[in-house]
Every structure is written in C-alpha cells, then in structure tokens.
Design a protein that fits this description.
Layout (H helix, E strand, L loop, with lengths): L1 H5 L2 E5 L5 E6 H9 L3 E4 L6 E2 L1 H4 L10 E3 L4 E3 L3 E4 L14 H7 L16 E5 L14 E5 H7 L26 E2 L16 E2 L3
Parallel strand pairs: 1-7, 10-11
Antiparallel strand pairs: 1-2, 3-4, 3-7, 5-6, 8-9
The structure holds zinc ion (ZN).
Length: 197
C-alpha cells in the first residue's frame, strides 16, 4: 500500500504556480524535506514546509505515507521555491511519453488506430545496433511495424512523417486524461487537460 502511494504522481508547480511536471510522491516528499519545494493543500491553497506538513492530520480517505512513528499526507501538489522558469530537460524515454510526443499517431502512415494497435518501432532496427532512444524510436501501427520488420526505412519503401527527436518539457504542461486528478484541477486550466481517447 505504502509503496504504491510513493509512486503516485504529485503535480509540480514552478515558483509562478504554473504546472510544469509530475513527479512520484517519493520524490515530491524529498523535495519538500530538503526545502526545495513546499506542499500545497489543494482546497485552501495553503503552502507548507516539511515541518508543518508532517504535523497535518491525514483526513479520512486521503492517501498517506507511513514512517516509523508518523503518517505523512501524500502531497497532491507541490510548488518549487526558487525555480520560476520551465526546466529545459529531456523527458525520460517511456512508452507513455512517446505516445504523447507522437500524438498517438503512427509515424509512417499517419493513422491513429488506438493505443492497443500502436507499438514502438526502432527506426534503425535493434538487430542492426539501433538504440532505444528518442532519436531512434517512433510509434508505428501494427501494419506498418510488420511491413518494416527489421529493415531500414528506405529499404522497406517507407517514409517517416517527421524526424524523431527528444521532446522538451512543454511550457504548457499537459496531463493525459488517464492521469487527471481532481485535486489538480485548480492548478491546471481546462485547456491544458489533454483528453486522450
Ligand atoms: Zn502505420
């Protein structure tokens, strides 16, 4: 139970209270503990340093983290104390982020067949030493993936819709539909909710 909560997402706001990322509760708590960030109570917008956050009672039904001698509320939202920009760091390579970068679209035929029909294709096949990276991986539908097989793009008579590259954190942070949280709604305007089908 506790470990599942530690990997839950916390919304991260920059100093200007603009949502810029999500991070696991485990990391959010360490940011609060080190004073890099403060926790926010979503209902009251009250901010808390670690010392006062750990003194809060955990409301019934709210997720919490248990330590040896106390229960700490799992923060839903945190705000960074000093960072006001948008971090220009590369997103970790995950299937979820790849789906987001490629807009759930096959990068060979441009169709959107639905998530179950999309696979990760290595542009330079793994059998030829192609790495699993932002620059070498794209979403491909089942048909295109089969057609390409372990060939190079040109050899398969195919063409990429666009050249794959590592995405930057978007200044307009989007939260995929499946990861929406009620407590976050007050911090992200409606147009930034990404409704994925
Ligand atoms: Zn395709």
């Amino acid at each position: 139970m506790t470990s599942a909560i530690l990997t839950r997402d916390t919304l991260v706001l920059n100093k200007a209270w603009i949502a810029i990322a999500t991070t696991p509760v485990r990391h959010a708590l360490s940011l609060i503990f080190t004073g890099t960030a403060e926790a926010i109570e979503p209902d009251s917008f009250q901010t808390h340093a670690f010392e006062t956050w750990v003194e809060l009672e955990v409301p019934d039904g709210e997720p919490f983290v248990s330590t040896v001698n106390m229960q700490i509320r799992a923060p839903e939202v945190i705000v960074l104390r000093s960072y006001s920009g948008v971090p220009q760091q590369v997103l970790p390579f995950t299937r979820r982020n790849l789906v987001r970068r490629d807009g759930s679209t096959c990068q060979y035929c441009g169709r959107q067949p639905g998530h179950a029909e999309l696979s990760i294709d290595h542009v330079i096949p793994r059998s030829r030493g192609g790495p699993t990276s932002w620059e070498n991986c794209v979403l491909a539908c089942v048909q295109c993936n089969r057609r390409k097989g372990s060939k190079l793009v040109a050899d398969a008579g195919m063409r990429l819709v666009r050249r794959p590259a590592a995405p930057q954190w978007s200044p307009i942070f989007e939260v995929a539909g499946t990861h929406q949280r009620d407590a976050w709604r007050r911090f992200i305007s409606d147009k930034h909710w990404k409704h994925s089908g």
